[in-house]
Amino acid sequence: MTRAPAAVVLVRLLVGGVFISQGLQMFLFPEALGLGRFIKIGLPAASFMAPFAGVTEIVCGILLTVGFLTRVAAVPLIVVILVAIRTTKVPILIKSGFWAMAHEARTDPVKARLIKA
User: Fold this and answer.
1) Which of 12, 22, 28, 116 has the fewest CB atoms within 10 Å, i.e. the most exposed one?
2) Is 43 domain-assigned?
3) pLDDT for res 111
4) b/e code 4-27 from CB counts within 10 Å (16+ = b)
5) Is the model's pLDDT at 1 over the cut of 90?
6) pTM score above 0.70
């Protein structure tokens, strides 16, 4: 049982859930969200980095969700977020402007669900 305030527990559940979901989707949809995407955006050592990022998101997301080692788990997740912003959102911002980038960021989770449809 946690002694954290309800708001903190809620934030942990929401943020952890997003990372767990995104990490799992990297393995469920590797061409669109995992290795294929890493290759497409030109990340070095994509065959290592894609599964590494997926596992990191899943493991650290679980740690956040259950409230164990949350500060330690947050560090790799911040790195994942910064890399994602730099490699996917900044190019859209530069090419198409703020609103296109904001729309792309908002629709990322929806795209993963539509891939199988």
Assistant:
1) 116
2) yes
3) 46
4) eeeeeeeebeebbeebbebbbbbe
5) no
6) yes
3 falls within a domain: no
> Which residue range(s) make up the domain with 63?
8-116
How many domains does one find in the chain?
1
**Residue 30, Cβ density class (10 Å: 0-12 exposed, 13-18 middle, ≥19 buried):** middle
How many Cα neighbours within 13 Å face the side chain of 32?
14
> Over 90: is that where the pLDDT of 37 sits?
yes
Domain membership of residue 1 (yes or no) is no
- In this prediction, residues 94-108 reach a mean pLDDT of 81
Closest C-alpha among 90, 71, 102, 83 to residue 22? 83
CA geometry: angle 102, 107, 108, nearest 5 deg: 105
Is 90 exceeded by the pLDDT of residue 88? no
